[in-house]
Each structure stands twice: as structure tokens, then as C-alpha cells.
């Protein structure tokens, strides 16, 4: 049995945190939510595209027997971006997430 997990998420604890972002979390999340509006809009569209890519990937697996690398990279990129945005929104990091699908 393989005991190694295929996905690893690691977030390093920051040595110093922004007090302004911490205060904004306590004040109804409003400033962080406003700062992340562009991310939310783009990720909403990318989420729909990612769902379509997953459905196409399932048909590709059914007919050709393997998942296309481009669809896999796109879906992983959207998940990566979404995870970075959620980590910033929940206060796990003070680094504003970049607008990119890559690492």
C-alpha cells in the first residue's frame, strides 16, 4: 500500500504579520473582500472553464485512455490560484495572491 499522498499543501508561518490585514479580518472581512473582488470575478469564470475542462477530460479518458496534459495543467492552475486566494482571505498569509495559474 502506498503511504505517500499525491497532494501536499504547505504554508509556512510568517515571521511577521500585517496588523492592518488582521484588523480587517475582525471588521467583517470587508477590506479583504474588496481587495479580492478582481480575483473572485476571474476565478468564477475560470471555475466554469475548469468544470468544462474536467468534463472534456473525462470523455478523453473514456475514449483515448489518458487525461490530456493541457487540461490537467489548466485545472491544477485554477485550483492553485483558488487556494492562494482562499489562504489570503482567511488570514493564513499576508501575501496578496498573484494573478497567475502557475506556481
Key features?
single chain, 103 residues, mainly alpha, 4 helices
Write up what this structure looks like.
Helix 3 (37-64) runs antiparallel to helix 4. This protein has a domain at 19-89. The radius of gyration is 17 Å and the shape is elongated. The chain contains 4 helices and no strands. By secondary structure, the chain is mainly alpha-helical. The longest helix has 28 residues, at 37-64. The protein has helices spanning 19-26, 30-35, 37-64, 69-89.
Short overview:
The protein is built from 4 helices and no strands.
Helices and strands in order, then pairings?
Layout lengths: L18 H8 L3 H6 L1 H28 L4 H21 L14
Helix pairs in contact: 3-4
Largest sheet: none
> What percent strand?
under 5%
Order of helices and strands: HHHH
**How many strand elements?**
0
User: Could you name the ranges where pLDDT drops below 50 across 5 or more consecutive residues?
Assistant: none
End-to-end gap: 30 Å
Number of helices: 4
Helix content: 55-70%
Q: Give the CA-based shape.
A: elongated
Quote the average pLDDT.
82
The Cα radius of gyration reads: 17 Å
Structural class: mainly alpha
Amino acid at each position: 500500500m502506498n503511504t505517500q499522498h499525491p497532494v501536499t499543501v504547505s504554508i509556512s508561518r510568517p515571521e511577521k504579520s500585517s496588523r492592518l490585514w488582521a484588523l480587517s479580518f475582525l471588521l467583517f472581512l470587508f477590506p479583504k473582500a474588496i481587495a479580492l473582488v478582481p480575483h473572485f470575478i476571474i476565478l468564477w469564470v475560470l471555475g466554469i472553464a475548469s468544470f468544462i475542462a474536467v468534463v472534456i477530460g473525462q470523455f478523453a479518458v473514456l475514449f483515448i485512455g489518458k487525461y490530456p496534459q493541457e487540461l490537467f495543467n489548466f485545472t491544477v492552475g485554477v485550483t492553485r490560484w483558488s487556494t492562494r486566494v482562499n489562504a489570503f482571505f482567511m488570514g493564513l498569509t499576508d501575501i496578496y495572491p498573484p494573478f497567475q495559474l502557475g506556481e
